[in-house]
Design goal:
alpha+beta, six-stranded antiparallel β-sheet, five-stranded antiparallel β-sheet, 13 strands, about 30% helix
């Protein structure tokens, strides 16, 4: 990864990264891109990096020493151990000299079940056979890829539009989850709140919204570096351009007032934001994408990626008020 991208994606490099060769037979810096699919326990990871990443001479001995067996799945070699999603304490690595346990994307060092496939120029990992079969099938062309899904393709094109963004895409997060006032209320208040309290807070959330947001097919958050500026994008996919234009106006009017759960300060107060919006639609037609752009000038000594991480908090805690959709 380029230096600024590596610092942004992995801000706290630990001894676990230095231990990759002993853990799974690869060098950390052989990885130049990564994809995570789903969430625990059904989570998949694909690491890209070319021949240096998929050197079977380096991988095979290390994985065999850790109890892995190998078999072919439709012509693709897959190393595997344990039953689906099993965890064995005896297979966990010990703590390092600082008291931390090393981790790796495939769960090898943490004692998890793992299936690791050698794809052309990439390594894929999953903790069960069903997900690994889907990943291998997509790589080999036997299973439909998300690249064939019009909504995902349009969203990916929108956040990588070189006519508008000449810089670098650092990372992106895709979700089909819809956020409502009720769901955000539950997630903000937690499990200890009663139904009446949640309903009252949902009404408060709805009263704070400045505009109506049509339900979307897909939501994306992206982190870009455009010259000296850090740029965070929110992209929402719709069936029609009119819906996308309404969404672009709604979210751009809301997002500056959003205060993430852990920050408790509105974005407009925490950052020197420049907020804009536009609608992207593929030249040949297809879904329309509302794109909201938030830009902040980089400052000397400031940790990169701060704006994106703050927005990402809302996704992870399932409480992004600026994405609350209107009732259909």
């Amino acid at each position: 990864l380029p230096g600024e991208a590596l610092a942004r994606v992995v801000p706290d490099t630990t001894s676990g990264l230095r231990g990759y060769p002993e853990a799974i037979g690869i060098e950390w810096f052989a990885i130049d891109r990564a994809l995570a699919i789903g969430g625990p326990p059904a989570r998949g990871v694909v690491l890209g990096g070319g021949d240096r990443l998929t050197d079977l001479g380096a991988l095979a001995p290390v994985l065999r020493d850790r109890g892995f067996e190998v078999e072919s799945m439709n012509g693709t070699l897959v190393w595997h151990r344990f039953d689906d999603r099993e965890i064995r304490a005896a297979a966990m690595d010990g703590r390092d000299h600082l008291g931390f346990r090393s981790t790796d994307p495939f769960g090898v060092q943490s004692g998890h079940a793992a299936r690791i496939a050698a794809l052309p120029g990439a390594l894929a990992g999953a903790r069960d056979w069903a997900l690994m079969a889907d990943i291998v099938g997509a790589a080999n062309g036997g299973t439909r890829s998300l690249a064939e899904n019009p909504a995902y393709r349009a969203a990916a094109e929108a956040i990588t539009d070189s006519d508008r963004y000449p810089g670098r895409l650092v990372r992106a997060l895709f979700t089909e989850r819809q956020f409502t006032a009720g769901s955000v209320s539950r997630n903000k208040l937690g499990s200890t709140a009663g139904e009446e309290q949640r309903a009252d807070f949902a009404a408060v959330l709805e009263s704070r919204l400045k505009s109506q947001l049509p339900p979307y097919r897909l939501a994306v958050m992206a982190d870009r570096q455009e010259g000296p500026n850090e740029v965070a994008l929110v992209a929402l996919v719709y069936g029609t351009r009119d819906q996308a234009e309404a969404a672009a106006a709604a979210v751009s009017s809301r997002v500056g007032d959003y205060a993430p759960l852990l920050q408790k300060v509105p974005l407009a107060d925490a950052f020197s934001l420049s907020i804009g919006s536009h609608v992207y639609q593929p030249r040949g037609g297809g879904p329309a994408v509302a794109v909201i752009t938030m830009s902040e000038p980089g400052k000397p000594g400031q940790r990169p990626g701060r704006l994106f991480r703050t927005l990402q908090t809302g996704f992870f805690f399932l409480e992004p008020e600026f994405l609350i959709v209107s009732a259909e």
